C-alpha cells in the first residue's frame, strides 16, 4: 500500500472517497453538456429524425458549392420538398456583395413564409426569421455545414404546418453563398421586401458534426432575449463568456449581416468533431443522430415560444442591457442583468476580506506572505501555460502530421494527460512553497488574484464575470465555515468541506475547459491549460491535502496512460480520415504555360504520376501575381497538356480622368462559367471599386483583389478608380489579372485526366496591361 499512500497518510479511505467524488463531479459535468440519445417520435407535429436523415442524405450526395450543377440540384430538391408540405417557396435571385469587399456574386436564396394567426391585424406586427444556408465549400458535401440545419427547417415547417398557426408570421430563409462571403444574407437584407417585416432572427450554422447545440452568439442588448431563451429551452448550453470571446474574434456567419442591421436574434451551432468542417468528411453518415435530433427539437421549441411573443419587445434601444448567463446542470440557464456583475464582484471582495480577517483569528496569516503567494500564483499561471504550449509545439516538430490534424477531439486523451501533469506540478510546487508560506497564506494569495481578476472582468467584460464570481463565492464560504468552526487541517472533515466549496467550480469549469480545447484546438493549448491552472489555484488547500494523502506517482501513471490512449486515438484517426491529396491544373495561355501544381510537402508520385521524376519545387509569381500570398508558396510543378479551357475575357470599356482620379471600366466574362473568378488590380493603389454597381471599397487599398462567385453568363462590369498622378508614374506596372477557378473538370477539357479521390482545382489566367 505504500506504493499508493505515504507512510504518514491518515485518511486513506476518505482520500479515495474524495477522489471518487471529484471524478464523479467531472463526469457529471461533462455528460450534462452532451445531447440526449435520440428517441422515436411518431406524431406529425414533432421533429422526425428518420425523415430528416433521409432528406440530408439526398442533398449531400454531391458536392455543391455556389454556382455548381450540384448546387442547382439541391435547390430544386428543397423547392420540391417545401411545395410537398403545402407551402409556396420563392427563389430570390440577386447580385450581392460582401461588406468587406472581398466577394460578390449571383445568389439564389430560397424564401418561404408561414402565415401566423395574427397576420394582417397590425401593420407593425413583426415576423420571426429562421435561417440556415444551403451552399457548401467546394471540397465538402456540406452535411453539417449546413445541410443538417436546412433539413431541420424542412422538418420544422412540416411540424408547424400540421398544428394550429403561430401568432407571428414565420419567414424561412435558406440562404445562398454564405461560405463565400455571406452573400445570400446580404442580398436578402439589401433587396427583399420581406426584410422590413423581420422582428427577430434565429440562425443555425455548424462547425462540427456532433456535440451539444450551443447558443454561442446573441445580439447586443440581449437581456429580454436571454430571459425568453431560458423559458423556451431551459436546458440550452450557452454562456456569456462565449459571447465575450466571439465578439473579439473575426469570425462571421449570416447572423452577422442581420445583427449589423439592428435585428435582434440568437445564433446556434454544434462544434464537436471538427474533422468534418470544410472537408470531404462532412458527410451525412457522420452526423451525430443525437445532435441532429437535439437541433430539430430545439428549433421547434424556439419557434413555438418566440412565435407567440410580441417581437417588437426585442428591438432594443441603443443602450439596452445585456445579460450575464451560463448553463448549469439540473438548474438550467442561470441569468441576470450585466449591471449586477460589478456589485456582485464588490460584495464577494468584501466577503474575501471578512474571511481573511476571521481566519487570522485562528491561524497565522502574514500579509506579505499572502502577497508572495499571490505573486507565485501569477508566475505559475504564466509558466505552466507557456511551457504546455511549447511542449505541444515540440510534439508538432516531432510529428508533423499533427499540424494537419483536423480533429482535436481525438486529442482529448492528450489534454487529460497534460492537465494531470500540470495538476501534479502545481500541487508539488505549492507543497514546496509551504516551507516558507503557510498553506492558508497560499490559499488567500490565490484568492487575492481571483478577486483582482473578478473585479477587472466584471468592469471590462461583464459577460465573463460568472466564471470567477460564483466559484470564488462558494470557496470563500467553505473557508469561512472552516474559520468559524476552527476545523483542523488534519481531519478528513476539513477536506470534505473544501470539496463542498469546490464542487460548484469543478462542475462549472470542466465542460468549459473541454469546449475551449474543441473550439481553439491544440494550436492554442495554452488557453485551456491556463483556465485549468486558474481553477487549481482556487482549489489549492484541497490539492495540497490530496497530495499529502496519496503519492503523486499514481497521477503520473494515469497521465501516462492518457497520453498513450491519445497517441492510439490519433493514429486511428489519421487512418480513418487521411488528408486528401491536392492537385491543381493552371493554364496561362498568353504565356503558353500549362502546369500541374501540388502544394504538399512531400510529393506522392504514385498518387500523382503526371509529375514524374522531373518535378521541382518553386514559387510562381508569374501565375498568381507578385502581390498575391500564393506567389510565395512553393509548389511541385510539372508540364501539363493544353486542356483547351477558355481563359477569362477582359475588355476595357472606358478610361477617363475625373478630377484628380482616373476611372477605368472593364467588362469581365468567364466563357466556361467558372465556379469563381478572382480579380486583382496590380501595381497601383485602388481608391474605389465596384462590380455590377455593388460598391466593394471606397478607401485606398494596395494589392486590391476581389472574387466573383457564380459569375453571370453575360459577365460583370468592374469599375475602379486610381490616383491620376500615380497612374502616370507607375502605369508600366499596372495590370488587371483575372483567374477563373473550376472545382470539377470543365466539359471543354476533354483531354484532361485527373486521378480519382483527390481535391482538384483547375485555373485559367488572363492578364491585361492598363495603358
UniProtKB/TrEMBL annotation:
Q: Where in the cell is it found?
A: Vacuole membrane
Keywords, A to Z, come to:
Glycoprotein, Membrane, Transmembrane, Transmembrane helix, Vacuole
Query: Please, which domain of life does this record's source organism belong to?
Result: Bacteria
Give the primary localization class: membrane
User: What topology does the record note for this protein and the membrane?
Assistant: Multi-pass membrane protein
Residue limits of the Peptidase M28 domain?
109-302
TM stretches of this protein: 338-359, 371-392, 412-430, 442-461, 467-484, 496-519, 525-547, 554-573
Q: Which InterPro entries match?
A: M28_fam, Peptidase_M28
The text of the family note is:
Belongs to the peptidase M28 family.
State what protein this is by name: Vacuolar membrane protease
Amino acid at each position: 500500500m505504500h506504493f499508493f499512500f505515504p507512510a504518514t497518510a491518515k485518511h486513506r479511505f476518505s482520500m479515495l472517497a474524495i477522489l471518487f467524488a471529484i471524478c464523479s463531479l467531472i463526469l457529471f459535468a461533462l455528460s450534462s453538456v452532451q445531447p440526449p440519445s435520440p428517441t422515436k417520435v411518431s406524431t406529425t407535429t414533432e421533429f422526425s429524425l428518420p425523415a430528416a436523415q433521409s432528406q440530408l442524405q439526398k442533398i449531400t450526395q454531391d458536392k455543391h458549392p455556389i454556382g455548381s450543377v450540384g448546387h442547382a440540384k439541391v435547390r430544386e430538391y428543397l423547392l420540391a420538398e417545401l411545395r410537398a408540405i403545402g407551402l409556396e417557396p420563392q427563389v430570390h435571385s440577386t447580385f450581392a456583395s460582401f461588406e468587406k469587399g472581398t466577394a460578390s456574386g449571383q445568389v439564389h436564396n430560397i424564401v418561404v413564409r408561414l402565415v401566423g394567426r395574427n397576420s394582417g391585424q397590425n401593420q407593425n406586427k413583426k415576423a420571426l426569421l429562421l435561417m440556415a444556408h444551403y451552399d457548401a465549400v467546394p471540397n465538402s458535401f456540406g452535411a453539417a455545414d449546413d445541410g443538417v440545419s436546412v433539413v431541420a427547417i424542412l422538418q420544422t415547417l412540416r411540424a408547424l404546418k400540421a398544428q394550429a398557426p403561430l401568432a407571428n408570421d414565420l419567414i424561412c430563409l435558406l440562404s445562398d453563398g454564405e461560405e463565400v462571403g455571406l452573400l445570400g444574407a446580404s442580398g436578402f437584407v439589401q433587396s427583399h421586401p420581406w426584410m422590413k417585416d423581420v422582428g427577430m432572427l434565429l440562425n443555425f450554422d455548424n462547425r462540427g458534426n456532433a456535440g451539444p447545440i450551443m447558443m454561442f452568439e446573441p445580439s447586443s442588448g440581449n437581456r429580454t432575449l436571454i430571459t425568453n431563451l431560458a423559458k423556451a429551452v431551459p436546458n440550452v448550453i450557452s454562456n456569456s463568456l462565449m459571447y465575450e470571446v466571439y465578439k473579439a474574434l473575426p469570425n462571421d456567419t449570416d447572423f452577422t449581416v442581420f445583427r449589423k442591421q439592428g435585428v435582434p436574434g440568437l445564433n446556434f451551432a454544434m462544434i464537436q468533431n471538427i474533422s468534418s468542417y470544410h472537408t470531404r468528411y462532412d458527410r451525412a453518415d457522420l452526423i451525430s443522430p443525437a445532435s441532429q435530433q437535439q437541433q430539430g427539437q430545439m428549433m421547434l421549441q424556439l419557434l413555438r415560444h418566440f412565435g407567440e411573443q410580441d417581437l417588437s419587445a426585442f428591438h432594443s434601444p441603443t443602450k439596452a442591457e445585456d445579460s450575464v448567463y451560463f448553463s448549469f446542470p439540473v438548474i438550467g440557464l442561470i441569468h441576470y442583468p450585466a449591471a449586477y456583475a460589478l456589485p456582485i464582484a464588490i460584495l464577494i471582495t468584501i466577503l474575501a476580506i471578512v474571511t481573511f480577517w476571521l481566519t487570522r483569528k485562528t491561524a497565522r496569516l502574514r500579509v506579505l506572505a499572502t502577497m508572495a503567494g499571490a505573486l507565485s500564483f501569477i508566475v505559475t499561471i504564466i509558466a505552466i501555460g507557456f511551457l504546455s504550449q511549447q511542449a505541444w509545439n515540440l510534439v508538432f516538430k516531432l510529428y508533423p502530421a499533427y499540424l494537419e490534424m483536423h480533429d482535436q477531439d481525438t486529442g482529448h486523451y492528450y489534454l487529460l494527460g497534460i492537465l494531470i501533469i500540470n495538476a501534479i506540478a502545481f500541487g508539488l510546487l505549492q507543497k514546496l512553497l509551504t516551507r516558507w508560506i503557510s498553506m492558508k497564506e497560499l490559499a488567500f494569495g490565490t484568492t487575492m488574484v481571483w478577486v483582482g481578476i473578478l473585479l477587472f472582468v466584471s468592469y471590462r467584460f461583464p459577460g465573463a464575470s460568472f466564471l470567477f464570481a460564483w466559484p470564488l463565492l462558494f470557496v470563500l464560504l467553505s473557508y469561512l465555515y472552516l474559520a468559524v468552526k476552527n476545523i483542523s487541517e488534519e481531519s478528513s472533515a476539513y477536506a470534505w468541506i473544501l470539496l463542498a466549496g469546490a464542487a460548484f467550480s469543478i462542475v462549472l469549469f470542466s465542460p468549459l475547459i473541454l469546449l475551449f480545447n474543441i473550439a481553439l484546438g491544440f494550436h492554442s493549448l495554452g488557453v485551456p491549460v491556463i483556465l485549468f491552472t486558474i481553477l487549481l489555484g482556487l482549489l489549492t488547500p484541497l490539492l495540497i491535502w490530496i497530495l499529502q494523502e496519496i503519492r503523486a506517482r499514481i497521477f503520473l501513471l494515469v497521465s501516462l496512460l492518457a497520453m498513450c490512449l491519445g497517441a492510439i486515438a490519433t493514429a486511428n484517426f489519421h487512418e480513418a480520415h487521411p488528408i486528401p491529396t491536392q492537385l491543381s491544373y493552371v493554364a496561362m495561355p498568353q504565356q503558353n504555360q500549362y502546369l500541374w501544381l501540388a502544394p504538399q510537402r512531400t510529393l506522392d508520385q504514385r498518387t500523382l504520376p503526371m509529375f514524374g521524376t522531373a518535378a521541382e519545387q518553386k514559387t510562381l509569381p508569374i501565375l498568381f501575381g507578385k502581390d498575391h500570398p500564393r506567389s510565395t508558396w512553393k509548389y511541385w510543378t510539372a508540364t501539363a497538356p493544353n486542356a483547351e479551357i477558355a481563359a477569362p475575357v477582359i475588355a476595357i470599356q472606358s478610361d477617363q480622368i475625373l478630377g484628380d482620379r482616373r476611372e477605368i471600366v472593364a467588362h469581365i466574362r468567364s466563357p466556361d462559367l467558372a465556379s469563381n473568378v478572382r480579380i486583382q488590380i496590380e501595381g497601383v493603389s485602388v481608391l474605389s471599386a465596384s462590380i455590377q454597381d455593388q460598391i466593394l471599397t471606397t478607401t485606398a487599398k494596395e494589392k486590391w483583389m476581389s472574387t466573383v462567385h457564380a459569375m453571370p453568363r453575360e459577365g460583370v462590369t468592374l469599375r475602379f478608380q486610381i490616383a491620376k498622378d500615380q497612374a502616370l508614374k507607375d502605369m508600366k506596372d499596372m495590370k488587371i489579372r483575372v483567374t477563373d477557378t473550376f472545382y470539377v473538370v470543365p466539359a471543354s477539357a476533354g483531354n484532361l485526366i485527373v486521378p480519382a479521390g483527390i481535391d482538384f482545382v483547375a485555373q485559367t489566367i488572363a492578364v491585361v496591361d492598363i495603358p
